[in-house]
Specification:
Layout (H helix, E strand, L loop, with lengths): L2 E5 L7 H10 L9 E3 L2 E5 L3 H11 L4 E2 L2 E2 L1 E4 L6 E10 L5 H9 L4 E7 L6 E7 L2 H11 L3 E2 L2 E2 L1 E6 L41 E6 L3 H5 L4 H10 L2 E4 L9 E7 L2 H21 L8 E6 H8 L4 H10 L2 E4 L11 E7 L2 H29 L70 E8 L3 H5 L4 H10 L2 E4 L9 E8 L1 H17 L11 E8 L3 H5 L4 H10 L2 E3 L11 E8 L1 H22 L16
Helix pairs in contact: 6-7, 7-10, 8-10, 8-13, 9-10, 12-13, 15-16
């Protein structure tokens, strides 16, 4: 990224001319100027020098009657999905920029680059090269609020060299690993972290946070190395507006503290006498672990920071808003400390969930994890197509029960309104699974007035019922889940997750449950295999315990039970493998039609 291309060069231009210009503008360069007919190249010592040359010289400095054009030098083979866009109006809102970039394709990331100039610079990554090329063609030189945008490629340092020569052109260093000064390639922390900080602020303070022509929010962004989205257009007329802060944990906390200080100053200036608490939005998936068993985690944060913390009721959750509001009262310093501790717990919970997903997601072939919306961030491989606008009333655009605004890199809402996705491995027919949970957990699964189980059933696309207790002292209750494989996956995953959230299992204890599925009695032998070979292989593959009790009496449908015990992904994989065996048995039982033969006619009596 430190090599520059200088275009629109006069035939009279010489190396000495360029030496003089760079010296005049105090721009360092680390190598000689390579002057060709109509263009030239030069190396800069770092990214900062290269950016200064582009900003100071390009389109502004004339040499022998021609205005120079300066940009990053990127060979064709290294023109990838990544672009740098410069000269962006300083007061432009991120929402507007996101919308503009999305016109040309799916934006995987958009990161701000810190510069000393007034206008903004961002590095953008598209999902495909043709999308980046289209954005380059359409945006380069286009006018935006009297600012001409300047777009150039960011080299793909991993691109394979073309031809036998890998050493680069004469006079230039060979392309090696990404330079430490290159934005977006490791020089600065990733702006959009997996879990952003989301807060609610009173609507009357939004103007002060943005500042005149966006000056205040721009300063916060620059000082804290963060990307801040103020969702002003959501919930028209609402008393509070959500703000999403993407940065490192330290950057998020710093930006949050600055925003609280701005609100306090504005309250004094406007003689606003009510207390302004810090309100943090967190996905319901994480709140149980934040609270801790018997509220211990939350109490410790209150004691350590000297704050009072309350969490909104489960009743406030809706199909479109799975976020809870964590209200923190105290001094600005105390609230800042509490925010750090709260978000630390939230991030730990998120990382734990995603580690489990990343480890096990490849075990269930054919399952479309991207569309499930089970975790508060994109599942492995989730694309950035975030086109769905949140429905009215959503805090920040949550799109389905079990998903959240944390949609990876890109706009914060996820386009996952549909509760269904592609059929799994060619088995769209309905299945019945009996899942056994602790009897004490029934209330948590049902929810107040049955709200939670209704939402879960709607989200998963499955019928979910709790069977009556078998006795007064029963320690387990049976959950009957009826639906196709993907609905089973969704419903069971949320039940496992709910038990963890509500602390029915210890913080370091893995949730393990027993599931029963029924199979035709004549197929039970195929599940067991000769000498138990199949069931042993099944257990080794899935890490689940699979048992087919031998002394069973088939029920009225001539079916017997297969018992599966283990953690969520183990149970799921075992269920899928058993269903594959049953499908194979069914196929083998189907009569094979004779090619070209007519069906036999009924005999006359």
């Amino acid at each position: 990224m430190n090599k520059l291309y200088i275009g629109n060069v006069s035939a009279e231009a010489s190396e000495e001319d360029f030496e003089s210009i760079f010296e005049q503008w105090k721009i360092p360069h680390s190598g000689p100027f390579l002057v060709k007919t109509g263009y030239a190249f030069v190396d800069c010592p770092d990214e900062k020098a290269a950016m200064k040359a582009i900003d100071v010289l390009s389109g502004k400095v004339e040499l022998h009657g021609k205005v120079l054009e300066v940009e990053h030098s990127v060979p064709k083979r290294q023109r990838s999905c990544k672009l740098q866009i410069r000269n962006i109006p300083p007061h432009m809102q991120w929402e507007v920029l996101d919308g503009m970039l999305a016109q040309y394709g799916a934006v995987e990331s958009c990161e701000q680059v810190n510069t000393d100039i007034e206008t903004a610079v961002v590095n953008v990554r598209y999902a495909a090269k043709d999308q980046a090329r289209l954005a380059m063609e359409k945006l380069n030189g286009s006018m935006m609020e009297n600012y001409a945008l300047k777009v150039s490629y960011i080299p793909d340092e991993t691109a394979a060299p073309e031809g036998p020569s890998a050493g680069g052109r004469r006079g230039f260093n060979a392309r090696g690993p990404p330079r430490s000064g290159s934005p977006g390639l490791g020089a600065r922390p990733k702006v959009q972290s997996d879990i952003p900080l989301r807060i609610l602020v009173p609507t009357q303070f939004v103007g002060a946070i943005i500042g005149k022509e966006g000056a205040t929010i721009r300063n916060i962004t620059k000082q804290t190395h963060s990307k801040i989205d103020i969702h002003r257009k959501e919930n028209a007329g609402a008393a509070e507006k959500p703000i999403t802060i993407h940065s490192t944990p330290e950057g998020c906390s710093s930006a949050c503290t600055t925003i609280m200080e701005i609100m306090q100053k504005e309250a004094i200036d406007t003689k606003f006498t009510e207390e302004i608490p810090l309100k943090i939005l967190a996905h319901n998936n994480f709140v149980g672990r934040l609270i801790g068993k018997e509220g211990r985690n939350l109490k410790k944060i209150e004691q350590d920071t000297g704050t009072k913390i309350t969490i909104s009721s489960l009743q406030d959750l809706t199909l479109y808003n799975p976020e809870r509001t964590i209200t923190v009262k105290g001094t600005i310093e105390a609230c800042s400390q509490a925010e750090e501790e709260v978000m630390k717990k939230v991030r730990e919970s998120y990382e734990s969930d995603m580690a489990a997903m990343n480890l096990q997601s490849n075990l269930i072939p054919g399952l479309n994890l991207n569309a499930l919306g089970l975790f508060p961030s994109g599942a492995p491989g989730m694309g950035p197509s975030m086109s769905s606008v949140p429905p009215p009333g959503a805090h920040g655009g949550c799109s389905s029960f079990g998903c959240s605004p944390y949609g990876g890199e890109g706009p914060f809402w996820a386009s996952m309104l549909s509760a269904s996705s592609q059929p799994l491995a060619g088995h769209p027919e309905s299945e019945t699974v009996h899942l056994f949970i602790p009897a004490l957990a029934v209330g948590a699964i049902i929810g107040k007035q049955g709200q939670h189980i209704k939402q879960l059933s709607h989200f998963a696309g499955a019928s979910i019922k709790i069977a009556p207790a078998e006795g007064m002292d029963a320690k387990q209750r049976m959950v009957i889940i009826i639906g196709p494989p993907e609905a089973q996956f969704k419903a069971q995953c949320r039940i496992f997750g709910k038990l963890k959230e509500e602390n029915f299992f210890g913080p370091k204890e893995e949730v393990k449950l027993e599931a029963h599925i029924k199979v035709p009695s004549f197929a039970a032998g195929r599940v067991i295999g000769k000498g138990g070979k199949t069931v042993n292989e099944l257990q080794n593959l899935t890490c689940a315990e699979v048992v087919v009790p031998r002394d069973q009496t088939p029920d009225e449908n001539d079916q017997v039970i297969v018992k599966i015990s283990g953690h969520f992904f183990a149970c799921q994989l075992a269920q899928r493998k058993i269903q594959e065996i049953l499908a194979q048995v069914r196929r083998q039982q189907q009569p094979k039609p004779t090619s070209g033969a007519q069906p036999p006619l009924p005999r006359r009596k």
